[in-house]
Amino acid sequence: MSAAQEASKLPDEGEIVIATVKEVTGHGAYVTLDEYNNMTGFLHISEIATGWIRNIERYVRPKQKAVLKVIRVNRARGEVDCSLKQVSGEERKSKLIEVKKSEKADAFMDFIKAKLKLSDQQVAEIEDKVLQKYDYIYDIFEDIARKGPELLQKFDLSDDVKKAMEEESNKIQVPHVEVRGVMEISSKKPDGIEIIKNTLAGVESSKGGATTEITYVGAPRYRIVVTAENFKVAEKSMNNAVEKIRSAIEKQHGAFNFIREESKKSHQG
């Protein structure tokens, strides 16, 4: 491999990487960079933690995995210096999620490869097509789980591959949030029960990324539950539904009261 090719395989300064601690010395630790063909990097003692460090192995030990930030790259010599203390909690969390997703995507593609008896070249072609529209392979499986397999129609893939991708996406539990409340609704009109039932039936739906369900608790109480990908979408749908019901009931001279209940995160799938 030429020096230019070797240099192109080095990480960039500021990049967050996964490393394995290889050897701890009095001055720091030598690590191997998992995503860069296990090339060696150095973690100086001054970049392990703030303040005086009495025992390096309190922070890093041989064979331990660590999330590090690349702070210097000497492309001519192929040397990489890293930092542990400069990695923020958010950067560490984000990197670990990325690695976990990458591992899951590899498992999905390995399963599809074995099931359909695909070659490495065929798998690479599928991944290339996906990466034209997504930053990571895992993202398309998560998108199928959220939005349905119809989105695969815009990809030039065989029906067998599409079907296998849909099946693998079913293994993903899509996180959802749930907002809840109780409505107290009454009407003194002779057909008051029918008015209430028809009003509530007109609000139950699955649209705009949210699902709205209403159940009877016991006169005059009805529970409304809205599930969505995040609280912003769920709250908007809840507010729209409640105001629609309030307006319809009050137009019919009925009584309406709404009591919020505690929201929660749930999993779907």
TrEMBL record:
Q: Which domain of life is it from?
A: Archaea
Q: Which GO terms describe its molecular function?
A: ribosome binding; RNA binding; translation initiation factor activity
Q: Which PROSITE patterns match?
A: S1 (PS50126)
* A Pfam short name: S1
List keywords of the entry alphabetically: Initiation factor, Protein biosynthesis, RNA-binding
Recorded hits in CDD domains, A to Z, give:
S1_IF2_alpha
UniProt feature coiled coil, ranges: none
Instruction: Give residue ranges for domain S1 motif.
Output: 14-85
- InterPro entries xrefs: NA-bd_OB-fold (IPR012340), S1_domain (IPR003029), S1_IF2_alpha (IPR044126), TIF2_asu_C (IPR024055), TIF2_asu_middle_sf (IPR024054), TIF_2_asu (IPR011488)
Oligomeric and partner information: Heterotrimer composed of an alpha, a beta and a gamma chain.
The record's comment on protein family reads: Belongs to the eIF-2-alpha family.
Function noted in UniProt: eIF-2 functions in the early steps of protein synthesis by forming a ternary complex with GTP and initiator tRNA.
Q: What is this protein called?
A: Translation initiation factor 2 subunit alpha
Species whose genome carries this gene: Nitrososphaera viennensis EN76
Write the gene name. eIf-2a
